[in-house]
Amino acid sequence: MRKSGLIYPFLLLACWTGLIGAGTYALLETTIRQHLARGFSATQGRIVRSEVGHSVMIRRGIEIEYHYIVSGKAYTGHRFRYDDHNSALEWEVAVEGHPLGSSQTVYYNPKNPADALLQPGVDGCDLLLLLFALVIGVLTSVLWRALLTRLRERSGIRPAGGVRILKLSGMTTVPLGETSAFTAGFYAMAAAAFIAAFPIVIVGGFEPSLRLVQTSWEVVLGAGVPVFMWRVMKKWSGIYDLRIDQASQTVTLPQTAGRRQPVSISRREICGVSMQRRVSKSPSGTHFSYLPALNRDGLQTDSQSIKLISWGWSEEKARAFSQWLSQELGVEFKGVEEEPSDFAAKS
Are 133 and 213 part of one and the same domain? Predict the structure, then answer.
């Protein structure tokens, strides 16, 4: 794909992000205001208008009006909740519960009595929509990450493909962990939110009990925090690092690509560096990714290559890193080879 070919995906993703961002902002704002309204003062008011609203083509939202008095001054309110036009809100039920001429409790901001509503507090629907917002937000960030990575790679090849390289006291360390702790934690939360949201809708619709959704959020946070901490400890332990020790002339392979623990081999056994091409097929077509690999002498298996990562990179990044690694080890860069079918099946 040419660099110009990324313009349309970029524009589409920007529009999508704008819509999602605006919706999420409105959801967060109304949820916070609903929560703060629990501290409002209360007075009695009288309903003078109560009906389901109308848009150009369909009925939508709640149209409500009520009069109330605070400190001898008369006010008129028009808000049932801060999200009166939320499509998940049961408008007919709200209208039936607040009939014309009835006396209702009005909750108003003591600092600004004109700021009033009839139903304060967060309900199950608010927290349910936040669950969906979390899933959509994480998916959107994944798309942005992939697109920006592609743009960076197209704009110019960085040294070693942009992989971080640390050199200290004769030891070269290359972190090859493919997911950061924050990213792993958010992925776990998004997965838990996705799994939890649909059973909630099935059981309670879009007006589930507050306790049910609170419990789901506890599960979601409980999934994200342990994964984050686990990933932090793993990264600090160095098990995802490729290490080249000049003193002992050994190379320690990271705990990736099916290895249950880091494995050290002698540099003398390494005869080259290559790129394994992985072929993936989907409804949109055939896709290629590339995995840097070490070629080792005397390996008693069907393959002489040892993959260094589990998930493939773009060809540009994999080539730049493989060429750097071949120079670092003083061996030949052998170019592209097909990923063995047995390895591909296990990946």
Answer: yes
Contacts of residue 201, defined as CB under 8 A and 6 or more positions apart, other chains included, come to 128, 208
pLDDT of the residue at 346: 44
In a domain, 247, yes or no: no
Q: Which two tokens stand for residue 20?
A: 């999602």
Residues 6+ positions from 245 with CB-CB distance below 8 Å: 170, 171, 251, 252
- Determine, yes or no, domain membership for 250: no
**Same domain flag for 64 and 202:** no
Asked whether residue 225 is assigned to any structural domain, the reply reads yes
Domain assignment of residue 284, given as a range: 264-346
Residue 242 lies in a domain: no
Token pair 């020790």 is found at: 245
pLDDT in tens, 195-230: 988 888 888 787 888 999 999 999 998 888 888 888
| DSSP-derived secondary structure for 2-70 | -GGGGHHHHHHHHHHHHHHHHHHHHHHHHHHHHHHGGG-EEEEEEEEEEEEEE-SSSEEEEEEEEEEEE
Query: CA–CA separation, 297 vs 231, rounded Å?
Result: 33
